[in-house]
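thought: user wants a sequence for this fold. calling inverse folding tool.
action: design(structure=
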């Protein structure tokens, strides 16, 4: 659903909720009517029924409005973040995924590379509405089943060991889909069994690898979707995001210690048990002695792991816009997710998440953090390791914002973006988010809607913006600035 459709549906949903509330609370208005009739008949108890009915009639809209607002993704200044217990940097991203299933204590934590991945099944029966479950686990109905071929590195990173490959089907929580796209997982390997039961202790006889179980929250951390910092005993912070060797060693220590809770994206060694902190410090010293290169954002062969096209969510496009909206001063605004937390509620096209966003107003006022419960489409979650940026559709007064998922997905690169020049040349702009952002604003300022990822300047109505669009694609920023002035403004 596009932004204008979402705004229109808000009124319909509100009316529907009010109607349902009146029907469900039918005794309340009935008490008001009975009390009014009794008052006319001179009954002494009439004022009690009138009071009950009057209070009920006033109270019905309040919870209805509150519930409807919670299901509509409008962000206002009243959503400003009040809880400052977590400090968010500009590059911070905190991810609280559903808790993983328990694995045997003797299982080993190792790295696995995703060689191939494909969507097997995702067919929830909840329709377009909201479905809520109890408990902390992600229900299978709303958890995609993914078939993967993995290369498992069975052994410590410091040891030379032959990896082995395994293929299977696993349920992947929506919040952790980006780990599959990135190609780096943390898996638990059960103790293997001897290939020859007659020689269980003979080192000359190899052992058959045990069951491989992906650990999804840890995989999101190893893939770099969730950022990670470590503050040492002297108070010095170190960024260990996308440093898989060090992170795996830290995960093993954490597992043996019974788990370590991160404060946002930070592990503060000063708050840990001294013995555990000493082990973390030893890992840091190993890293300083032999610095580890930062892993790539995504491992080679991403095309064989590309799940985005089969996942539900808003299709990417340059976006739609009403002609009156830019005339009244409406603008597009960029924001960035700082935190996503899983809830027990789901929609077909994505999970409902408690989010924290940093919004940069278009008028140049300081950025502010807002917290809002949003349905995040699954195709966007699959590329969350690349970007956490989001495009907002701001009202003309700048007091409220609505997430524009079509523009957001195009900016995130869920599909290829192309500009067709007036002479018919195809100019790819995929992987150039700043150019795509400029083009979105050019189209919006001219009141031009383009709901696909292909911008054809030969089409009727595109001539007014064609010159500025071509300047943006070529990178002439000074010319683009002139093109951002709407041609129809008065």
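)
observation: tool returned 490 residues.
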């Amino acid at each position: 659903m596009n932004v204008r459709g979402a705004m229109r549906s808000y009124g319909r949903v509100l009316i529907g909720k009010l109607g349902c509330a009146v029907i469900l609370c039918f005794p309340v208005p009935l008490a008001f009517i009975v009390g009014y009739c009794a008052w006319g008949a001179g009954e002494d108890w009439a004022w009690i029924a009138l009071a009950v009915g009057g209070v009920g009639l006033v109270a019905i809209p309040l919870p209805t409005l509150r519930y409807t607002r919670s299901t509509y993704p409008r962000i206002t200044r009243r959503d400003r973040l009040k809880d400052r217990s977590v400090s968010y940097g500009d590059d911070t991203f905190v991810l609280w995924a559903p808790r993983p299933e328990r694995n045997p204590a003797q299982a080993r934590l190792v790295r696995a590379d995703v060689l191939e991945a494909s969507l097997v099944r995702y067919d929830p029966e909840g329709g377009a509405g909201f479905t809520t479950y109890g408990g902390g686990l992600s229900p299978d109905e709303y958890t995609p089943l993914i078939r993967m071929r993995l290369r498992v590195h069975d052994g410590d990173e410091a040891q030379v060991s032959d990896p082995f490959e395994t293929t299977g089907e696993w349920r992947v929580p929506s919040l952790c889909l980006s780990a599959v796209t990135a190609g780096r997982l943390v898996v638990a390997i059960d103790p293997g069994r001897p290939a020859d039961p007659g020689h269980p202790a003979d080192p000359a006889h190899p052992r058959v690898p045990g069951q491989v179980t992906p650990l999804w929250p840890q995989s999101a951390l190893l893939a770099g979707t969730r950022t990670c910092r470590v503050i040492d005993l002297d108070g010095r912070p170190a960024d260990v995001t996308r440093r898989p060797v060090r992170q795996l060693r830290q995960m093993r220590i954490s597992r043996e210690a019974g788990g370590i809770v991160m404060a946002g994206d930070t592990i503060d060694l000063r708050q840990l048990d001294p013995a555990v902190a000493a082990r973390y410090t030893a890992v840091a010293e190993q890293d300083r002695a032999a610095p580890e290169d930062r892993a790539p954002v995504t491992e080679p062969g991403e095309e064989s792991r590309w799940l985005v096209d089969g996942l539900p969510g808003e299709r990417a496009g340059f976006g739609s816009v009403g002609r009156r909206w830019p005339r009244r001063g409406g603008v597009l605004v960029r924001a960035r997710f700082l935190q996503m937390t899983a809830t027990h509620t789901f929609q077909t096209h994505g999970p409902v998440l408690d989010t924290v966003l940093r919004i940069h107003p278009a008028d140049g006022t300081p950025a502010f953090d807002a917290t809002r419960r949003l349905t995040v489409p699954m195709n966007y979650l699959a590329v969350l390791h690349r970007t956490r940026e989001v495009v907002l559709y701001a009202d003309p007064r700048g007091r409220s914002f609505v997430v524009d998922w079509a523009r957001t997905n195009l900016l995130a690169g869920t599909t290829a973006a192309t500009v067709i020049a007036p002479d018919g040349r195809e100019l790819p702009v995929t992987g150039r988010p700043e150019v795509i952002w400029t083009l979105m604003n050019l189209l919006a300022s001219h009141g031009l809607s383009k709901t696909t990822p292909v911008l054809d300047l030969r089409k009727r109505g595109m001539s007014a913006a064609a010159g500025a669009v071509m300047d943006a694609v070529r990178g002439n920023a000074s010319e683009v600035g002139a093109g951002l002035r709407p041609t129809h403004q008065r």
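thought: summarizing for user.
answer: Here is the designed sequence. The CA atoms of residues 419 and 455 lie 5 Å apart.
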